[in-house]
Amino acid sequence: MLNFKFPADRLAVALDVPSAVEAIELAECLSGKVGVLKVGLELFCSEGPNIVRELQKFAPIFLDLKFHDIPTTVARALSAVIGLNPLLINVHALGGLDMMRKASELVKTHRQNGGRTHLLAVTILTSMDKLALEQLNMMCEPSEMVLGLARLAKSAGCDGVVCSAHESASLRTECGSEFLLLTPGIRPRGAETHDQVRVVTPVQAINSGSDWIVVGRPITHAPDPASAAEAILSDMAELNQK
Question: In this structure, is residue 2 part of a structural domain?
């Protein structure tokens, strides 16, 4: 059972940088101010598994590789990285029930053997809106599709999902208090949205039921990343006091 004692426990920072030097510099700067460091495709493909080992000296890791392939291939890929023991790892829910079930079984076996990894299923990317789904011939509201994929992920044994905070409240009601919700597309008030479409503020996300919020450029591209993180934590702390 994961325990969120402090606002920092809920803050994940996306280390979307191309090199270990930049990632470690940011991790050192943010040490003690964030609960999770996210390693995505850019950094992992550039630096490989060793960067996860190095960054875990500063905070638990969300290994954001979004596996999406046939069930056997995904299971083998997970087996290759599960020994890194990240706090969180993910697959695409659109990979289907069997793929998610195989991934879930592997992760649960890892936990039974002393690991700490939890499996999340990516629902709909926060860069996609209704028009983007229609271009893929998916004629439904993003919120409807997210809810359906979250139900499928839960039935497959996943520990939670990656979703926009626009869906967090309905998923919390539908999937229960133990189902983990991680929310990207977070932008503090006044920050640029960049390539994200369905964005919310940190406080809105926590209010909606998200367990973790993922913040990238508003922290990592700030003149003082530590101060930027502290400002977000301050807002979240005020929310907890209300």
Answer: no
